[in-house]
Write a structure and sequence with these properties.
By secondary structure, the chain is of the alpha+beta class. Helices cover 30% and strands 28% of the residues.
Length: 494
């Protein structure tokens, strides 16, 4: 696909400098992690231009849009239902390729900005606006890297309230954009500043939207949340549950509830985030106090060799993780370093400290089988009572209860079985988003996704914490409903 980069530069420069051009209105989209936005700007000369803004910067936006050019990259706009997980193929389906997509990268303090012009892309995006649907915009350079952002249209004040609750700094950043300051939002037909005010320190100081409306929205969210097809909610008990498609099972505590299948998990994600989920087969939630959420996704990649485990260098991995961190990360440290256990489970956990003092935690478990592996993310709040040793024991106890059926265990491998593209060392490096031990292929598939989990999904924990105090249909609070919670899981005995 030939893209005329020079012509774009000339056209882009002329359109931006035109004095006869007046901004009429704009539409706005929030990126899935609430740290970036997209603007569609409409002008008096009937031209329409797009803009993506990453607040605080995101390395792979810079890598893709500065080191590549429209001549050697391809861009895709894909419906949200297809754009999930960590596989580049999900975001780069040939039928959704944009033939002419011209872009220009620029810096603004710590922010990254990508301006783009593309009649085809704009037309497609307008369709998503009218249908109120989520979509992804992905740009792929096979020789470098790829980036995919998933965007949801902001349709009403309730959506803005959602952003405010998730990341008020992002909302204040939005309110300071020149388009937002000088023009009206087409969907709201008003200026956003009519509803929200921020001070000079980018702190939200006023929300003029209806509190009654907010409460109703929250109540509706709660109803939708508990209306999902939850297992172990109404009659909770400890038991083993099968992980879909994996030929494996996991031990469920009495104090946990879970959902299965992409369709139901998408509903879960839409309630909490407003968009479809990354690829997952199972989500487990601590229903007693919503202290943690566990995401499980089975990857049918083949047998993972353990031969390169000896090459795993935790110190080197940590240094590379720091080098790929967002600009507003002040420190990254291991909670516990990558370890491999007798049952062929590998796990690690690290903590991220942000410039504003916030602390987030990412814990990964790779449960290895004969034909693939379960990729498990444990998301947990870090508070004053957080105990590193106890959490490590919790994570390992959980990992130890994941068992593959006979014939599908890692030890059941036979010569001639499908082998994965990388060994365990390369897989660990790939899931961390670093290059050490990881082949180019695994990086191409995992990197854009993996590095993005610097923004750990803590948003649902805030929301779920508010649900904790609400009454269930039986009149019980969530804490009253589940009164027994063991500190450790029972390991399976044969």
């Amino acid at each position: 696909m030939k893209k005329l980069f020079l012509l774009f530069i000339l056209y882009f420069s002329s359109t931006l400098s035109s004095s006869a051009k007046t901004l009429i209105n704009y539409s706005i989209f929030i990126e899935e992690d609430s740290t970036g936005i997209m603007l569609i700007n409409r002008y008096s000369d009937k031209s329409v231009e797009g803009k993506m803004i990453s607040y605080g910067g995101y390395k792979w936006i810079k890598e893709v849009y500065t080191k590549s050019t429209p001549d050697n990259s391809s861009t895709y706009i894909t419906p949200g239902k297809y754009a999930y997980g960590n596989d580049v193929e999900n975001y780069t389906r040939p039928e959704y390729e944009i033939e002419n997509f011209y872009f220009n990268f620029s810096y603004r303090k710590n922010d990254y900005i990508v301006d783009f012009i593309s009649p085809e892309a704009i037309q497609n995006i307008e369709g998503f606006i009218s249908r109120k649907e989520t979509f992804s915009l992905a740009t792929y350079n096979p020789r470098l890297a790829w980036y995919a952002g998933t965007f949801t249209p902001i349709k009403n004040v309730e959506d803005l309230n959602y952003i405010s609750n998730q990341n008020s700094i992002t909302l204040c950043n939005i309110l300071s954009e020149k388009e937002v300051v000088s023009s009206i939002n087409r969907e709201l037909n008003e200026k956003l500043s009519n509803n929200f005010k921020c001070d000079d320190n980018n702190t939200l100081i006023s929300n003029n939207s209806s509190s009654v409306q907010n409460n109703n929205t929250e109540d509706e969210q709660t109803k939708k949340f508990y209306a999902l097809d939850w297992f172990n909610l109404d009659d909770p008990k400890e038991h083993y549950a099968e992980i879909p498609s994996s030929n494996s099972e996991v031990y469920i505590l009495e104090s946990e509830m879970y959902i299965k299948g992409q369709q139901e998990i998408d509903k879960f994600s839409n309630i909490l985030f407003g968009h479809s989920a990354n690829e997952n087969d199972m989500v487990i939630i601590d229903s007693s106090d919503f202290a943690y959420t566990i995401y499980i996704n089975y990857k049918d990649e083949g047998y993972i060799s353990l031969k390169d485990w000896k090459d795993v260098d935790s110190k080197q991995l940590l240094e590379e993780m720091k080098s790929t961190a967002k600009d507003d990360v002040t420190n990254v440290s291991w909670i516990f370093e990558p370890k491999i256990y007798e049952n062929k489970n590998v796990s690690y956990s690290y903590k991220v400290i942000w410039q504003d003092g916030a602390q987030t935690l990412e814990t990964k478990i790779l449960s290895l089988g004969r034909k693939g592996y379960n990729s498990i993310s444990v998301v947990k709040k870090i508070d004053e009572d957080f105990n590193t040793k106890e959490f490590e024991e919790f994570a390992l106890d959980f990992a130890n209860t994941i068992t593959f059926k006979e014939g599908f265990r890692h030890s059941d491998y036979k010569s001639g079985d499908k082998a994965a593209a990388v060994g365990i060392g390369g897989l660990v490096a790939g899931t961390l988003g670093v290059k050490a031990l990881a082949k180019a292929g695994i990086i191409a598939k995992l990197l854009a996704f993996a590095v993005k989990f610097w923004w750990v999904i803590l948003a649902p924990l805030v929301f779920l914490g508010s649900l904790f105090s609400k009454k269930s249909s039986s009149g019980e609070t969530s804490s009253e409903k589940v009164t027994k919670k063991r500190k450790k899981r029972t390991k399976k005995t044969d």
